[in-house]
Amino acid sequence: MTKTLFAEFTVKEGSETRVAEMMLELTQLVRQEPGNELFLPYLREEEPRKYFVFEVYRDDAAFQEHITAAYGARFNEELALHIEEPASQLTWLTPLQ
Fold this sequence. Notes:
Alpha-Beta Plaits, 4-stranded antiparallel sheet, 38% helix
């Protein structure tokens, strides 16, 4: 069964450019993961410092591979310096069937 979630965070004023660069780099890397089916980062139109990232992974194993990738740890460590929350806020989704 696929693992589907969205992550949200708010960028601190002055960090917008750096976080955008980080997200573009992360997006390229995640999309190359064999178990990643979708990775779509967005900025909210009405609040352009708020990110919404929609993610879909093939299964639990693919998600575990994703969260243990070294580049993800580096990204999260630096991201913590640039966002208002302590970390990205994750929301898990279940498809209607």
